[in-house]
Amino acid sequence: MKSIIIAIDGWSSCGKSTMAKQMAKELNYLYVDSGAMYRAITLYFLRQSVDFDKPKEIEKALAEIELDFRYNETSGQADMYLNDENVEYMIRDLIVAEKVSEVAAIKEVREFAVAAQQKMGEKKGVIMDGRDIGTVVFPKAELKIFMTADNAVRVERRFKEMIAKNPNVTIEEVAENIQMRDYIDSNREHSPLRQAEDAIVIDNTNLTREQQLKKALDLAKQAMR
User: Fold this and answer.
1) Domain that holds residue 120
2) What is the pLDDT of residues 150-171, one digit of tens each?
3) Number of domains in the chain
4) 211, part of any domain
């Protein structure tokens, strides 16, 4: 079977990363969490108090950022490193989640991240998930999947994920955050979230992780022939 690029896009809290990680493990492919890259950039911007409306500050900050994925033997997954610091846990915080869509909408940030992502996919054998993977990063990917789910289900999933890390978070805060991110992601000027014309939709509202993984792996094996 030939080595391909698999692009997975979709709304937040649709299980894109979970499924992509499972697929990468099954296919022995490199998994790239594009969302973690934008979250790491957002974390750096917040730490440095970067003004999102000042291009010069943004460009200066981006020049100081080095992103890297490193394998974690304990978890069996790749952790996000920002300038040699493991920030995998910190980038999942609600404070970062509240700002990541705003940062990801900045033209210079997207150009910086997309260039890094495209470099990672040069040798193929890559699975990447995000918002614009099949439309901008890898428009010629051999397999494009667009994931969606019922809004109430997405809120419940994200709430369970967030409350494990922050017991004080409320389901109302999570719902508001998802609504805000959906709006910003789909209405931003640069690389908005949209379904690629040749993407295959997987609605996992009523699917188990095992069922959605089987469906995705079947599609991957067809595309690899």
Assistant:
1) 5-33+93-217
2) 999 999 999 998 898 889 999 9
3) 1
4) yes
